[in-house]
Specification:
single chain; alpha+beta; six-stranded antiparallel beta sheet; 17 strands; 55% helix; elongated
Length: 675
């Protein structure tokens, strides 16, 4: 994916029309836009965001409404009846298509105030074939337009490929830098699996499998009731899944809130000894909690396995005593029943070889013995019952002692855990005496409680979903028994089974592929971090949700996570992620070009002041990597920093931002070389 051009009209600092044509050359794939501080570099970066997503990158403490898009010079010349337009138009292309994205707002003026009021707004997107650009297809509907834009330029990744080096830590676009896992799936091709699985089974009443099932007919009220029960279960599952998604959003929200307060507390701890002691106690507490839980689970398991034997022992002894007093001495043959005697008589010959004739001695003896066998006599069953009772008693002979020892271990673990908790509380009190963290800590506890509540709610909902699915499986088994035996039903049943098999295979392949990609990205992000930064005592890694952790080497060996990062460290960490994602996408695209399969394009990288907080050596190392891993690099930066990049040989287009001291607006001028 490449940006071909960007055109701005009356957008913020830029009066009138200003157009930038970006280099799309394979080798000279860098476009450089140089300007001084406050000249308008960041405004161009904002133009990308606003055109693509209808939102701006906001500074801490500000909202979208606090930013005025209409150029002030244009607004000053308007009266109460005037109208003026702001628009941004981006043209982008991939290997097959050209995309024209245009977002426009018309304004009136709340005269005499210098306030612009929205009068009309529109977003349009046109798609054409690269080989036939004159025939354009207009995408209809705002939701369809935004969906396609998000496929081309995933919004959750915008904070990375539209990179603001100066305001990384204190700026957001409606929280888009959170939860980027889905967008990584888009870039790596995993979203195709998810879309297919959703179409097959995971989209409720509109899924393929649901529609196939609805085609299968039965007869009678029993079948109709089962079908209705299944639909109720499916509706409950859909409702629970919606609630699970809501819970996930809330969990992510409170995780972010907790992280913000934890970072604040970390930054303001001014006693290193207490801080280190506090962290050590946290590690000890986690270990003790795991051991406590493990011992408790072992105790519960022992109790579950043998408790019923122990509780049954008095009942078995009393039952045996009572039955024996009534039944008297046992005269049965062990393990035989009346059916065994009947079989011998029917055969006509005893096991001793004598013939069995009516009224013979053999016949009379067998009939006498028959009266002592179950079901006429319970002697044999009583013997088995007695054997089981003795076996249970022997099995549980040491159980009381084992459970006492296990319970003692649980108590010891709990006592040690509580002591460590008290120690942590004492350390917190000491730290609070030096800095008043009370309000922040109360907030943190509230957010943790809310996060825990939503986690519990999510777990409970997922348990219900699993229960409903098991119920559906049972219902469908019963429905099959009630189905009319017709060729039409057989056809649809076969289709359902085939769709289920395809779904199961895709789900298995998705999990395996997801793990492979995650492992590969995690290895590569560390390689790129080492390649771009001289930091032997640090490393970075991805979490399961694709958050980026920085780890520091400890004196005793191993690594620990460091959350209190400098601005330079944050930029280093995020650059390593950007390069890894772009490198992965480009590598996979090159592999796919050897086959007939369709592959997602890589994203361009748009960098606003990317090197402002890095040293000269790191600027050179990073800059050297960028043109190699992305098909297109667009950089806005200060003239004075350009020399450290060493990127002159990669530059295919260069621009200068001109702004006169006596004017409030800027303009963009193409240059023949780097100024």
């Amino acid at each position: 994916m490449r940006f071909k051009s960007l055109e701005m009209s009356n957008f913020m600092r830029y009066k009138g029309n200003n157009r930038i044509e970006f280099s799309c050359d394979d080798k000279k794939n860098v476009t450089i836009i140089l300007g001084d501080n406050t000249a308008g570099k960041t405004t161009i970066a904002q133009a990308f965001r606003w055109c693509l997503y209808g939102a701006l990158l906001t500074e801490r403490g500000k909202k979208q409404e606090d930013y005025q898009l209409l150029n002030n010079d244009i607004l000053a010349k308007m009266d109460a009846n005037s109208r003026a337009s702001v628009f941004i138009e981006i043209i982008a292309e991939d290997d097959r298509h050209v995309y024209q994205i245009r977002r426009e707002v018309q304004y009136t003026r709340l005269y005499p105030k210098m306030i612009a009021k929205e009068f009309y707004k529109k977003v349009a997107l046109y798609q054409s074939e690269k080989d036939d650009p004159d025939i354009k297809l207009e995408i209809q509907g705002d939701s369809e337009i935004n969906e396609l834009i998000n496929e081309l330029f995933p919004r959750n990744l915008s904070h990375y490929f539209l990179f603001d080096g100066e305001r990384w830590s204190d700026a957001t676009v409606d929280g888009v830098k959170e939860n980027i896992k889905d967008s990584v799936h888009i870039l790596t091709g995993l979203s195709a699996y998810q879309a297919a699985m959703k179409h097959l089974k995971d989209m409720g009443g509109n899924s393929v499998i649901r529609k196939f099932n609805d085609k299968i007919k039965g007869s009678g009220n029993i079948y109709d009731n089962l079908a209705e029960d299944r639909k109720q279960m499916e509706r409950k599952i859909e409702k629970c899944e919606e609630s699970v998604e809501t819970a996930k959003i809330n969990i992510t929200h409170y995780e972010t809130k907790c992280q913000e307060i934890e970072n604040y507390l970390e930054e303001n701890k001014n006693t290193e000894i207490l801080q280190n002691k506090y962290k050590q106690c946290q590690v000890v507490r986690r270990t003790q909690e795991e051991r406590k839980n493990s011992e408790y689970r072992a105790l519960v398991q022992r109790f579950s396995e043998k408790a019923f034997m122990i509780f049954a022992e008095p009942m078995i002894e009393a039952s045996l005593k009572m039955v024996k007093s009534v039944a008297g001495e046992r005269r049965d043959i062990p393990h035989m029943h009346q059916a065994s005697i009947d079989h011998i008589i029917k055969s006509g010959k005893c096991i001793c070889g004598h013939s069995i004739l009516p009224d013979s001695t053999e016949y009379q003896n067998l009939m006498e013995q028959r009266n002592y066998l179950p079901p006429a006599d319970i002697g044999s069953l009583l013997g088995e019952f007695e054997h089981i009772g003795r076996n249970w008693k022997n099995t549980t002979s040491d159980t009381f002692d084992d459970m006492r020892e296990s319970a003692q271990r649980v108590d010891d673990c709990l006592r040690a855990y509580e002591e460590t908790c008290n120690q942590l509380s004492s350390i917190e009190t000491q730290m609070n005496e030096q800095i008043d963290f009370k309000e922040k800590k109360n907030q943190l506890q509230h957010y943790r409680n809310e996060m825990k509540r939503h986690c519990n709610e999510k777990g409970e909902l997922e348990g219900r979903i699993e229960s409903y699915r098991k119920r559906i499986a049972t219902i469908e088994t019963d429905m099959r028994k009630q189905e009319a035996q017709s060729e039409e039903n057989k056809k649809w049943r076969m289709r359902v089974e085939m769709a289920e098999q395809v779904y199961a295979r895709m789900k298995k392949d998705f999990k395996e592929r997801e793990r492979e990609i995650f492992t590969e990205l995690n290895q590569q992000i560390q390689n790129n971090f080492e390649r771009m930064f001289n930091a032997k005592d640090k490393k970075i890694q991805l979490t399961e949700q694709y958050n980026i952790q920085m780890l520091y080497k400890t004196e005793i060996g191993g690594y620990r996570e460091e959350k209190n990062l400098s601005e330079g460290e944050k930029i280093a960490r995020n650059f390593a992620f950007i390069v890894t994602i772009m490198e992965y996408s480009r590598k996979k695209k090159a592999q796919k070009l050897m086959s007939d399969e369709i592959e997602n394009d890589t994203l361009p990288i748009v960098l606003d002041g990317p090197f402002s907080k890095l040293g000269d050596e790191n600027i050179r190392l990073i800059a050297k990597v960028l043109p190699e891993v992305s098909e297109q690099v667009i950089i806005f930066m200060l003239r004075k920093d350009w020399a450290y990049t060493g990127l002159d040989e990669y530059v295919g287009a260069s621009y200068s931002i001109d702004k006169d001291a006596d004017k409030s607006y800027a303009s963009i001028r193409r240059t023949g070389g780097i100024l």
